[in-house]
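Suppose you are handed a protein chain with no further information: no name, no annotation, nothing but its sequence. What can you learn? This example shows the usual starting point.
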Amino acid sequence: MKKLNLVPTGISLVDKAWGGFYRGGTYLLIGQRKSGKTLIGLQYAMESAKNKEVCLFFTSMRPKDLMIHAASIDFDLQSYMNQNLVIVVRVAPPTEIYESSNPDNFLIEYFNDIVTVVDQYQPNRLIFDELTHFIGFENPQALEQTFLRTMESIEEKNVTSLFVIAEPATPFAQLLVDGIVQHSTAVIYLQKQTDEDGKSTSGRATITPNIGHTEGQFVTDYYIEPYKGVYFEFEQAPKFQNPFPILNTVELQKEQSTLKPPTSQSSKYKPLTNIDTVPEKFSFSNLYDINDFTLILNNQIALYKSTGQPFTLFSIKLDEIAESQKILTINQLQNAIRLSTDKKDKLCIVGNKILILMSKADDKTLNELVSKIKSNLPNSDPKFQDVIMNYVFACTYQVNDKVENAEYILHEILEDEPSR
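A reasonable first move is to predict its three-dimensional structure. Written in C-alpha coordinates, the prediction is:
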Protein backbone atom coordinates (compact mmCIF):
# COMPACT_ATOMS: atom_id res chain seq x y z
CA MET A 1 0.00 0.00 0.00
CA LYS A 2 1.52 3.33 -1.11
CA LYS A 3 2.21 5.88 1.60
CA LEU A 4 0.09 9.03 1.58
CA ASN A 5 1.62 12.33 0.43
CA LEU A 6 4.72 10.63 -1.01
CA VAL A 7 5.74 10.74 -4.68
CA PRO A 8 8.19 8.32 -6.35
CA THR A 9 11.49 9.96 -7.26
CA GLY A 10 13.33 7.54 -9.52
CA ILE A 11 16.10 7.62 -6.90
CA SER A 12 16.01 4.04 -5.65
CA LEU A 13 17.60 4.76 -2.27
CA VAL A 14 14.99 7.41 -1.46
CA ASP A 15 12.08 5.35 -2.78
CA LYS A 16 13.07 2.20 -0.86
CA ALA A 17 14.09 3.89 2.40
CA TRP A 18 11.47 6.64 2.64
CA GLY A 19 8.87 5.73 0.04
CA GLY A 20 9.67 8.85 -2.00
CA PHE A 21 9.61 12.62 -1.49
CA TYR A 22 6.83 14.44 0.35
CA ARG A 23 4.58 16.21 -2.12
CA GLY A 24 5.47 19.90 -1.93
CA GLY A 25 8.73 19.28 -0.06
CA THR A 26 12.10 20.94 -0.71
CA TYR A 27 15.10 18.64 -1.06
CA LEU A 28 18.82 19.30 -1.54
CA LEU A 29 21.28 17.18 -3.52
CA ILE A 30 24.88 17.97 -2.53
CA GLY A 31 28.02 16.42 -3.99
CA GLN A 32 31.39 16.89 -5.60
CA ARG A 33 31.91 17.57 -9.28
CA LYS A 34 31.15 14.50 -11.43
CA SER A 35 29.66 12.61 -8.49
CA GLY A 36 26.44 11.88 -10.40
CA LYS A 37 24.30 14.86 -9.34
CA THR A 38 23.02 15.70 -12.83
CA LEU A 39 22.22 12.05 -13.57
CA ILE A 40 20.15 11.84 -10.38
CA GLY A 41 18.36 15.03 -11.40
CA LEU A 42 17.55 13.47 -14.78
CA GLN A 43 16.31 10.28 -13.10
CA TYR A 44 14.02 12.46 -11.00
CA ALA A 45 12.75 14.24 -14.13
CA MET A 46 12.23 10.93 -15.96
CA GLU A 47 10.18 9.53 -13.06
CA SER A 48 8.09 12.71 -13.11
CA ALA A 49 7.44 12.42 -16.85
CA LYS A 50 6.54 8.72 -16.59
CA ASN A 51 3.90 9.70 -14.02
CA LYS A 52 2.54 12.36 -16.42
CA GLU A 53 3.67 15.17 -14.13
CA VAL A 54 5.21 18.39 -15.43
CA CYS A 55 8.84 18.88 -14.37
CA LEU A 56 10.52 22.28 -14.62
CA PHE A 57 14.25 21.69 -15.17
CA PHE A 58 16.57 24.66 -14.57
CA THR A 59 20.07 23.97 -15.89
CA SER A 60 23.29 25.81 -16.67
CA MET A 61 24.06 23.24 -19.41
CA ARG A 62 23.34 23.68 -23.11
CA PRO A 63 20.12 21.83 -24.04
CA LYS A 64 22.06 19.55 -26.41
CA ASP A 65 24.51 18.58 -23.65
CA LEU A 66 21.62 17.85 -21.29
CA MET A 67 20.03 15.60 -23.92
CA ILE A 68 23.30 13.67 -24.29
CA HIS A 69 23.41 13.18 -20.52
CA ALA A 70 19.80 11.99 -20.60
CA ALA A 71 20.53 9.55 -23.44
CA SER A 72 23.27 7.95 -21.31
CA ILE A 73 20.53 6.67 -18.97
CA ASP A 74 18.13 5.80 -21.81
CA PHE A 75 15.97 8.87 -21.17
CA ASP A 76 14.45 10.36 -24.35
CA LEU A 77 14.41 13.91 -23.05
CA GLN A 78 13.40 15.48 -26.38
CA SER A 79 10.26 13.34 -26.57
CA TYR A 80 9.08 14.43 -23.13
CA MET A 81 9.97 18.05 -23.92
CA ASN A 82 7.74 17.84 -27.02
CA GLN A 83 4.91 16.65 -24.75
CA ASN A 84 5.57 19.58 -22.36
CA LEU A 85 6.16 17.11 -19.53
CA VAL A 86 9.74 18.34 -19.09
CA ILE A 87 10.34 22.07 -19.50
CA VAL A 88 14.02 22.96 -19.71
CA VAL A 89 15.03 26.48 -18.69
CA ARG A 90 18.66 27.43 -19.23
CA VAL A 91 20.12 29.70 -16.54
CA ALA A 92 23.53 31.23 -17.15
CA PRO A 93 25.87 31.79 -14.16
CA PRO A 94 25.56 35.38 -12.83
CA THR A 95 28.88 36.71 -14.16
CA GLU A 96 27.60 40.31 -13.99
CA ILE A 97 27.62 40.07 -10.21
CA TYR A 98 31.22 41.26 -10.08
CA GLU A 99 30.16 44.58 -11.59
CA SER A 100 27.27 45.08 -9.19
CA SER A 101 27.53 47.55 -6.31
CA ASN A 102 25.30 45.27 -4.22
CA PRO A 103 25.94 41.60 -5.14
CA ASP A 104 23.39 40.24 -2.66
CA ASN A 105 20.54 42.27 -4.14
CA PHE A 106 21.67 41.14 -7.58
CA LEU A 107 21.40 37.48 -6.55
CA ILE A 108 18.06 38.04 -4.83
CA GLU A 109 16.61 38.97 -8.22
CA TYR A 110 17.64 35.57 -9.56
CA PHE A 111 15.68 33.86 -6.79
CA ASN A 112 12.69 36.09 -7.55
CA ASP A 113 12.91 34.98 -11.17
CA ILE A 114 12.66 31.32 -10.10
CA VAL A 115 9.28 32.03 -8.51
CA THR A 116 8.18 33.95 -11.62
CA VAL A 117 9.01 31.01 -13.91
CA VAL A 118 7.23 28.59 -11.56
CA ASP A 119 4.15 30.82 -11.69
CA GLN A 120 4.36 30.80 -15.47
CA TYR A 121 4.60 27.03 -16.03
CA GLN A 122 2.86 25.72 -12.87
CA PRO A 123 4.87 22.46 -12.70
CA ASN A 124 4.39 19.51 -10.35
CA ARG A 125 8.13 19.15 -9.78
CA LEU A 126 11.20 21.34 -10.04
CA ILE A 127 14.92 20.68 -10.45
CA PHE A 128 17.59 23.37 -10.26
CA ASP A 129 20.94 22.03 -11.50
CA GLU A 130 22.79 23.69 -10.05
CA LEU A 131 22.18 26.41 -7.49
CA THR A 132 25.82 26.86 -6.44
CA HIS A 133 26.51 29.98 -8.53
CA PHE A 134 23.47 31.75 -7.10
CA ILE A 135 24.12 31.35 -3.37
CA GLY A 136 27.41 33.26 -3.18
CA PHE A 137 25.94 35.93 -0.90
CA GLU A 138 28.16 38.17 1.21
CA ASN A 139 25.59 38.12 4.03
CA PRO A 140 24.58 34.58 5.12
CA GLN A 141 21.38 35.88 6.74
CA ALA A 142 20.32 37.50 3.46
CA LEU A 143 20.79 34.18 1.65
CA GLU A 144 18.91 32.26 4.34
CA GLN A 145 15.96 34.66 4.25
CA THR A 146 15.91 34.74 0.44
CA PHE A 147 16.02 30.97 0.09
CA LEU A 148 13.33 30.52 2.75
CA ARG A 149 11.06 33.06 1.04
CA THR A 150 11.62 31.39 -2.35
CA MET A 151 11.09 27.92 -0.92
CA GLU A 152 7.84 28.89 0.79
CA SER A 153 6.50 30.50 -2.39
CA ILE A 154 7.18 27.30 -4.34
CA GLU A 155 5.87 24.99 -1.62
CA GLU A 156 2.60 26.95 -1.47
CA LYS A 157 2.01 25.78 -5.05
CA ASN A 158 2.57 22.15 -3.94
CA VAL A 159 5.66 21.84 -6.15
CA THR A 160 8.18 19.16 -5.09
CA SER A 161 11.66 20.64 -5.52
CA LEU A 162 15.17 19.24 -5.84
CA PHE A 163 17.99 21.81 -5.65
CA VAL A 164 21.48 20.66 -6.68
CA ILE A 165 24.50 22.21 -4.93
CA ALA A 166 28.23 21.56 -5.24
CA GLU A 167 30.04 20.43 -2.10
CA PRO A 168 31.33 23.53 -0.23
CA ALA A 169 35.05 24.14 -0.71
CA THR A 170 35.64 26.73 2.05
CA PRO A 171 34.37 27.29 5.62
CA PHE A 172 32.37 30.33 4.49
CA ALA A 173 30.82 28.37 1.64
CA GLN A 174 29.93 25.67 4.17
CA LEU A 175 28.26 28.32 6.33
CA LEU A 176 26.18 29.47 3.36
CA VAL A 177 25.10 25.92 2.51
CA ASP A 178 24.30 25.17 6.18
CA GLY A 179 21.92 28.12 6.18
CA ILE A 180 20.02 26.56 3.29
CA VAL A 181 20.18 22.98 4.53
CA GLN A 182 18.36 23.76 7.77
CA HIS A 183 15.27 24.88 5.83
CA SER A 184 15.12 21.85 3.54
CA THR A 185 12.94 18.78 4.02
CA ALA A 186 15.92 16.47 3.59
CA VAL A 187 19.40 16.24 2.06
CA ILE A 188 20.99 13.73 -0.32
CA TYR A 189 24.80 13.81 -0.06
CA LEU A 190 27.09 12.12 -2.59
CA GLN A 191 30.75 11.42 -1.85
CA LYS A 192 32.45 10.05 -4.94
CA GLN A 193 35.34 7.60 -5.08
CA THR A 194 37.99 7.84 -7.81
CA ASP A 195 40.07 5.09 -9.39
CA GLU A 196 43.76 5.20 -10.31
CA ASP A 197 42.98 7.13 -13.50
CA GLY A 198 41.05 9.75 -11.56
CA LYS A 199 37.69 8.59 -12.92
CA SER A 200 34.66 8.25 -10.67
CA THR A 201 32.05 5.55 -11.20
CA SER A 202 31.08 4.91 -7.59
CA GLY A 203 30.81 6.51 -4.18
CA ARG A 204 28.96 6.74 -0.88
CA ALA A 205 25.47 8.22 -0.57
CA THR A 206 23.79 9.54 2.57
CA ILE A 207 20.17 10.66 2.87
CA THR A 208 19.34 12.72 5.96
CA PRO A 209 15.87 14.02 6.91
CA ASN A 210 15.24 17.37 8.56
CA ILE A 211 11.45 17.16 8.68
CA GLY A 212 9.40 13.97 8.63
CA HIS A 213 10.81 10.80 7.04
CA THR A 214 10.85 9.18 10.47
CA GLU A 215 12.64 6.15 9.02
CA GLY A 216 15.75 8.25 9.62
CA GLN A 217 19.15 8.55 7.95
CA PHE A 218 20.51 5.93 5.54
CA VAL A 219 24.01 5.43 4.13
CA THR A 220 24.90 3.15 1.22
CA ASP A 221 27.28 2.68 -1.70
CA TYR A 222 26.27 3.84 -5.16
CA TYR A 223 27.47 3.13 -8.70
CA ILE A 224 27.09 4.89 -12.03
CA GLU A 225 26.07 2.36 -14.67
CA PRO A 226 25.53 2.90 -18.43
CA TYR A 227 21.85 3.20 -19.43
CA LYS A 228 20.81 2.86 -15.77
CA GLY A 229 22.25 5.98 -14.20
CA VAL A 230 22.98 6.08 -10.49
CA TYR A 231 22.34 2.72 -8.83
CA PHE A 232 22.24 2.37 -5.03
CA GLU A 233 23.28 -0.81 -3.23
CA PHE A 234 20.63 -0.54 -0.54
CA GLU A 235 19.33 -2.98 2.03
CA GLN A 236 16.73 -2.13 4.66
CA ALA A 237 18.49 -1.30 7.91
CA PRO A 238 17.45 -3.01 11.17
CA LYS A 239 15.23 -1.15 13.57
CA PHE A 240 17.02 1.31 15.84
CA GLN A 241 18.15 0.10 19.24
CA ASN A 242 19.30 2.49 21.93
CA PRO A 243 23.04 1.81 22.44
CA PHE A 244 23.13 3.57 25.78
CA PRO A 245 22.00 1.68 28.91
CA ILE A 246 19.75 3.69 31.24
CA LEU A 247 18.24 2.95 34.61
CA ASN A 248 14.59 1.96 34.51
CA THR A 249 12.00 3.27 36.94
CA VAL A 250 12.29 0.35 39.36
CA GLU A 251 16.07 0.68 39.53
CA LEU A 252 15.75 4.40 40.09
CA GLN A 253 13.37 3.96 42.99
CA LYS A 254 15.69 1.40 44.54
CA GLU A 255 18.97 3.21 43.90
CA GLN A 256 17.94 6.86 44.15
CA SER A 257 19.12 7.05 47.75
CA THR A 258 22.60 5.80 46.76
CA LEU A 259 23.16 8.21 43.86
CA LYS A 260 25.95 10.69 44.38
CA PRO A 261 24.98 14.38 44.48
CA PRO A 262 26.13 16.75 41.70
CA THR A 263 29.82 17.62 41.89
CA SER A 264 29.38 21.33 42.52
CA GLN A 265 26.92 24.16 42.93
CA SER A 266 27.32 27.07 40.51
CA SER A 267 26.27 30.70 40.51
CA LYS A 268 26.39 30.74 36.73
CA TYR A 269 24.65 27.43 35.93
CA LYS A 270 21.19 26.85 37.46
CA PRO A 271 19.51 23.42 37.89
CA LEU A 272 16.77 22.82 35.32
CA THR A 273 14.53 21.67 38.18
CA ASN A 274 14.15 25.35 39.11
CA ILE A 275 12.75 26.39 35.73
CA ASP A 276 9.00 26.30 35.08
CA THR A 277 8.11 24.64 31.79
CA VAL A 278 5.43 24.99 29.13
CA PRO A 279 4.57 21.94 26.97
CA GLU A 280 4.84 22.32 23.19
CA LYS A 281 5.67 20.24 20.12
CA PHE A 282 9.29 20.00 18.99
CA SER A 283 11.24 20.28 15.71
CA PHE A 284 14.75 19.64 14.41
CA SER A 285 18.00 21.61 14.40
CA ASN A 286 21.63 21.48 13.23
CA LEU A 287 24.87 20.47 14.92
CA TYR A 288 28.19 22.25 14.22
CA ASP A 289 31.77 21.74 15.33
CA ILE A 290 33.39 24.45 17.47
CA ASN A 291 35.17 26.14 14.54
CA ASP A 292 32.02 26.55 12.44
CA PHE A 293 30.02 27.49 15.53
CA THR A 294 32.55 30.24 16.35
CA LEU A 295 32.26 31.56 12.80
CA ILE A 296 28.45 31.64 13.04
CA LEU A 297 28.61 33.31 16.45
CA ASN A 298 30.97 36.02 15.17
CA ASN A 299 28.56 36.66 12.32
CA GLN A 300 25.67 37.05 14.79
CA ILE A 301 27.74 39.49 16.83
CA ALA A 302 28.48 41.55 13.72
CA LEU A 303 24.77 41.56 12.87
CA TYR A 304 23.95 42.72 16.42
CA LYS A 305 26.46 45.57 16.25
CA SER A 306 25.18 46.76 12.86
CA THR A 307 21.42 46.28 13.31
CA GLY A 308 20.83 45.76 17.03
CA GLN A 309 19.26 42.34 16.41
CA PRO A 310 19.65 40.42 19.70
CA PHE A 311 20.38 36.74 20.21
CA THR A 312 20.79 34.36 23.14
CA LEU A 313 23.43 31.72 23.74
CA PHE A 314 22.07 28.96 25.96
CA SER A 315 24.53 26.45 27.46
CA ILE A 316 23.42 23.17 29.03
CA LYS A 317 25.90 21.23 31.17
CA LEU A 318 25.66 17.57 32.15
CA ASP A 319 27.26 16.71 35.47
CA GLU A 320 29.96 14.07 35.00
CA ILE A 321 28.43 11.97 37.79
CA ALA A 322 25.39 11.37 35.56
CA GLU A 323 27.54 9.67 32.92
CA SER A 324 29.69 7.71 35.36
CA GLN A 325 26.59 6.25 37.04
CA LYS A 326 24.86 5.67 33.68
CA ILE A 327 21.95 7.93 34.55
CA LEU A 328 22.25 9.94 31.32
CA THR A 329 24.94 10.28 28.64
CA ILE A 330 25.97 13.42 26.78
CA ASN A 331 24.81 11.74 23.54
CA GLN A 332 21.35 11.12 24.98
CA LEU A 333 21.15 14.71 26.19
CA GLN A 334 22.33 15.94 22.79
CA ASN A 335 19.60 13.96 21.05
CA ALA A 336 16.92 15.33 23.39
CA ILE A 337 18.14 18.88 22.73
CA ARG A 338 18.39 18.34 18.97
CA LEU A 339 14.77 17.18 18.88
CA SER A 340 13.68 20.10 21.04
CA THR A 341 15.27 23.08 19.28
CA ASP A 342 13.97 25.16 16.43
CA LYS A 343 15.45 24.41 13.01
CA LYS A 344 16.95 27.92 12.94
CA ASP A 345 18.90 27.28 16.15
CA LYS A 346 22.55 26.16 16.03
CA LEU A 347 24.06 23.46 18.30
CA CYS A 348 27.63 22.72 19.36
CA ILE A 349 29.03 20.17 21.84
CA VAL A 350 32.08 21.14 23.89
CA GLY A 351 33.02 18.50 26.46
CA ASN A 352 30.08 18.03 28.81
CA LYS A 353 28.35 21.21 27.61
CA ILE A 354 25.94 21.71 24.72
CA LEU A 355 25.71 25.24 23.30
CA ILE A 356 22.52 26.47 21.65
CA LEU A 357 22.56 29.69 19.62
CA MET A 358 18.91 30.70 19.70
CA SER A 359 17.12 32.84 17.15
CA LYS A 360 14.73 34.14 19.82
CA ALA A 361 15.68 35.81 23.09
CA ASP A 362 12.92 35.73 25.71
CA ASP A 363 12.12 33.80 28.89
CA LYS A 364 9.12 32.05 27.34
CA THR A 365 11.29 30.54 24.61
CA LEU A 366 13.80 29.24 27.16
CA ASN A 367 11.07 27.76 29.34
CA GLU A 368 9.49 26.03 26.35
CA LEU A 369 12.89 24.64 25.37
CA VAL A 370 13.38 23.08 28.80
CA SER A 371 9.90 21.54 28.60
CA LYS A 372 10.70 20.02 25.21
CA ILE A 373 14.03 18.65 26.42
CA LYS A 374 12.30 16.89 29.32
CA SER A 375 9.73 15.35 26.98
CA ASN A 376 12.48 14.03 24.69
CA LEU A 377 14.64 12.37 27.34
CA PRO A 378 15.14 8.57 27.04
CA ASN A 379 12.51 7.89 29.70
CA SER A 380 9.32 9.93 30.13
CA ASP A 381 8.65 8.69 33.66
CA PRO A 382 8.37 11.76 35.96
CA LYS A 383 10.48 10.11 38.68
CA PHE A 384 13.22 9.40 36.15
CA GLN A 385 13.11 13.02 34.95
CA ASP A 386 13.24 14.38 38.50
CA VAL A 387 16.45 12.42 39.10
CA ILE A 388 18.00 13.47 35.78
CA MET A 389 17.24 17.17 36.20
CA ASN A 390 19.40 17.26 39.34
CA TYR A 391 22.41 16.58 37.10
CA VAL A 392 21.59 18.96 34.24
CA PHE A 393 22.39 22.68 34.53
CA ALA A 394 21.76 25.67 32.30
CA CYS A 395 23.46 29.03 31.71
CA THR A 396 22.04 31.88 29.62
CA TYR A 397 24.16 34.54 27.89
CA GLN A 398 22.43 37.45 26.19
CA VAL A 399 24.49 39.59 23.82
CA ASN A 400 25.34 43.12 24.94
CA ASP A 401 27.46 46.06 23.79
CA LYS A 402 30.49 44.85 25.77
CA VAL A 403 30.86 41.76 23.61
CA GLU A 404 33.84 41.97 21.27
CA ASN A 405 33.85 38.59 19.53
CA ALA A 406 32.79 34.95 19.81
CA GLU A 407 35.92 34.00 21.73
CA TYR A 408 34.94 36.47 24.46
CA ILE A 409 31.50 34.87 24.89
CA LEU A 410 32.76 31.30 24.69
CA HIS A 411 35.40 32.00 27.33
CA GLU A 412 32.72 33.40 29.62
CA ILE A 413 30.27 30.57 29.16
CA LEU A 414 32.62 27.58 28.91
CA GLU A 415 35.06 28.42 31.70
CA ASP A 416 34.39 26.12 34.62
CA GLU A 417 33.94 27.69 38.02
CA PRO A 418 35.90 26.32 40.99
CA SER A 419 34.02 23.83 43.14
CA ARG A 420 32.44 25.24 46.28
